[in-house]
Amino acid sequence: MLTRAYQHSLRGSHLPAGQPLLEVDNISLRFGGVKALRDISLTVTEGDVHAIIGPNGAGKSSLLNCISGLYHPQEGEIRLHTVPGSRGGHRQDADRTTGEVRTHTLTSLAPYKIARLGVARSFQNIELFSAMTVLENLMLGRHIHMRKGVLSSMLWLGPARRQEIEHRQLVEEVIDLLQLQAVRNKHVGALAYGVQKRVELGRALCLQPALLLLDEPMAGMNAEEKEDMARYILDVHELAQVSVVLIEHDMNVVMDISDRVTVLDFGAKIADGTPDEVKADPAVIEAYLGAEEEDQAVREAVAHMEQQVAQETAKEGDRG
Amino acid sequence: MAATATGIHHRSYTSELRLRATRAEYFRLGLMTVLLLVLPFVLDNYWLSIANTILIAVIGAVGLNILVGYTGQISLGQGGFMAVGAYSSAILSDRIGLPTPLAILLAVLLTAAVGVFFGLPGLRLKGLYLAIATLASQVIIEFLVRRDIGDFLTEGLGYINVDRLAFLGFEIGGRDVFEQQWYWILLVLAVLTVISARNIFRTGLGRSFMAVRDQDIAAEAIGVNLTRAKLTAFAVSSGFVGLAGSLTAHYSEVVSWEKFTLDVSILYLAMIIVGGLGSIAGAVYGAVFMTLLPELIRRLANALESTMPFLGDQLPAVRNATFGAVIIAFLIFEPRGLDRIWQRMKDYVRFWPFRY
Q1: Residue environment code for B76-93, b if the CB has 16+ CB neighbours within 10 A, otherwise e
Q2: What is the pLDDT of residues A176-235, one digit of tens each?
Q3: What is the pTM of this model?
Q4: Quick one: A194 and A60 in the same domain?
Q5: Of A112, A294, B186, B283, which one has the fewest beta carbons inside 10 Å?
């Protein structure tokens, strides 16, 4: 539960915990002849940290791009369940819902419409607005909740300014949560890599997401930075109760912080379950460590080659 | 990096959101206001006409910078959009007989609509390709107003004579007060333009424009509707440009196609490059600088007539060469323009005697 006096809930979903939030139903994605994803199905449960792992090129980022609408899969369907609640974002309002679950098909929606449904994401290669300050980047995270009339913006006094201040309050809470106070007014282009990753997480959080998609939030970090980032993600998950889909390479981190793990390899799903189940799955071990039969075959081939070389030297020795 | 003044502690978001915080900033603002108010009483009519040209250029350059500098959509169609504003407001006020302020307002809206139409390629094209597409808008509009098919625009004259500006019982006076009265009108409009453009970029609308410029995929992923953001930017920008165009028409009292050629588009691009892309103040500095430059060159040529007579003989060529040299010099030495130079000067003073 919350320890600090945050006034806004960062959680955009009003589904009860344990219900399916996102259903990926048999999607396939092709780029010409390349099958990036083959018949992938998975269900993200409200309240979970759901990790997607797999070797390079397994299709993890493609899957995330399908969910957030940057790619449109040729087959299958992605569904998001939401409970419409008040959009105010105040904590008291967060629990007041109409109760009925609405299902949205994301498969052919434009990315900005998916964002408006509450799906926020970060990118593998940081995609921040580098010419702007941290504050402006985070305020952009509030974009879907803001009115953007041309005339009222030009006038500034009145509704436009009131709106800026209103949203600034939530942004400041995100700044607090992610400890970005010191860099608030710095241009993001000038910040260290780890901080930029945190700003990106913050920008996604400012959306008040129903579902947070994080594409390798710890890529290229050292052990200490990874631990920090893992703690921030856990904070977000536990304090703000946001459901998270996480792509990560570091198995230790994944096994530590996720409730559920899906493993992809060559565009296909090879395992799905709790971290312990996945760790014991032979298919996963094969994808990550290589199969034992393969090792055996290699050993035989090497022995065979050695034998041949020995025979040839023996023949040459006979002639000489 | 710009200097951050220390010792400024905001106690409310309202005070932080103000454009000016330090006493020095308010002092400079006051100085500027006094200067602008005193100017028409000090300058003669010739210099006032230059000041008026500058004020119109300020409106146009601010408009262009909204599109090019802030939203990252390169436009070579400035001249064409100004032509739309000028022709429509001249026709609406003089031939149809609408009150001039209403005609100007309608011209602004019409130019915004035309801007949106020619902004449609911007939904698919970026960078150089968009530049070529907007060049097409320039060429098309220039062709239409120049050929004037069916003599609809100029009724066969080739130009439109515009009546002296009059509204609400007020009419611009004769030769001796003409420039001065226009100065006040243009000053008010230019100041309003600058303030409203500045306001746009401290709200969500302006941030969404900049998001499109910086990282369009990320912008879409946080919920910015790219189509809407780009077309709004085209509309807002063209609106200001149309205002500049229609003011040109009423101020110079004649509308002809020569005033809205590709040269004009390039001159305005030069203004915002020299002034500073993505800065409202930069657009103002650029407009002032690029409008004064030909005058300064002319004066210099006159002064050096005895020693270097070829300067005066070849004035147009010298002027063009200087224009080119200035743009290249800025691109090489200070791509962020006069605005950045001014920032650095302020920083230098603030940190003195330290360097940073």
Answers
A1: bbbbbbbbbbbbbbbbbb
A2: 999 999 999 999 999 999 999 999 999 999 999 999 999 999 988 888 999 999 999 998
A3: 0.89
A4: yes
A5: A294
